[in-house]
Each structure stands twice: as structure tokens, then as C-alpha cells.
Amino acid sequence: QSYCHRLQHDMYFLTSTSRLNEQVVDKIVLQLNRVYPQILTNEEAEKFRNPKASLHTRLSDLLKHLQKKGDRHCQEFYRALQINAEQLFNDLPSRKILKTPDPTEIDTDKEQYMLNDRGPVFFLACFSVAAGLALFWYCCNSETQVIGRARRVLGFSPIIIGRHVRNICMLYLEDISRN
Predict the structure, then answer these.
(1) Binning pLDDT at 50, 70 and 90, where does residue 146 land?
(2) pLDDT of 150
């Protein structure tokens, strides 16, 4: 969609009461007058900054003037609006149409929430089960001599594992080593 069509679509939204105040309109007109490429001549800028005319009239005339000049001028208006009134720029109806999500596109914010909605307790539980299964598989594998290694690891782990759990594991390892 061209910038002229977007501006025509946004015109009512921009000219409605209390959307743009006089200072912001003046900043936009000055930016369009002073920034390269110069969109408004000095005479046009004075006309659109005339305090004798109402803000609604000046803004409507400015938007119509920019639409007549072409797509590049409308694009520069949107750039000036974004710089001087970013919140209003983000609320434009044409921006909301551009922001509508593609149904085939993945919403990363929603996907992030979906992956993280279980919390840290779930992660710790899964990690504990995985670590326990790995330790059990490592200790029960008959091809490796792990009893001595496991005894050393479990012997130095009263901080990690409770004392009673460590004693049970040690008894289990000694029982396995006798068989």
C-alpha cells in the first residue's frame, strides 16, 4: 500500500480532536521544511504554521497538500510523525493493518510463554530425574568398573545429597559389589 493511500486512510484519525497538538504539528512542518529533501517550501511551511487558522484546518490542508505532491512526500510526513509523536505513529490505523500477524507465522512472544509456563520447579524435577537415570544407568552398566568411582563420588557428596540418602546409596553399591 502506498504512503498516499495510507495517509488518506489515517487522515480522519490524525485530524480528530486532541490527537496532535499545535507544538507537534509545528515540529512536523518545520522538519518537512528543513530536512533534506525539502518537502515544504518556506512559503508553504509558513502557511501551515499560521496561528490564525485552526489546527484542524491547517492539518487537513497539510495532509491534502502532501497527498497531491506524491508518495515520497507522504513517506517523509510519516517519518516526521514517527520522530515527533512516536506513540501516535504506533497507534495509526494503517500501522495496525500492517501489524496484523500472518497466520502461518510463529508468534515468538506467545511461543516463549508456552515454553516457560511450567516454572523452575518443573525444570528441577526433570533435571533430577534425568540425572538420576544417568547415574543409575552408569552404575548398573556391567561393562564398566564404576563401583569404586561411584563410591568416591557419593562419598564426597553430603552437601549435594542428604546424609540418609547417601548412606542408602552406599549400602546399595556395597550390596551390588558383593553380588
Answers:
(1) low
(2) 58
What is the average per-residue pLDDT within 86-98? 86
Residue holding cell 480522519?
12
Q: Which fold has domain 3-97?
A: Death Domain, Fas (1.10.533)
d(CA 31, CA 84): 9
Q: Which of 8, 44, 25 is nearest to 88 (CA)?
A: 25
Domain ranges of the chain: 3-97
Separation in Å, CA 17 to CA 8, 79, 80, 160: 17, 22, 20, 66
Task: Check: CB of residue 39 under 8 Å from CB of residue 66.
Answer: yes
Neighbours of 157 (CB within 10 A): 13
Lookup result for grid cell 490542508: 61
At 12, list the grid cell.
Answer: 480522519
SS3 content of the chain, % helix, strand, coil (to 5): 70, 0, 30
pTM to 2 decimals? 0.54
d(CA 49, CA 141): 85
Residue 17 and residue 100 in contact, taking contact as beta carbons nearer than 8 Å: no
Per-residue pLDDT reduced to its tens digit, 29-60:
999 998 877 899 999 999 999 889 888 899 99
Instruction: Give the whole-angstrom CA distance, residue 81 versus residue 89.
Output: 6
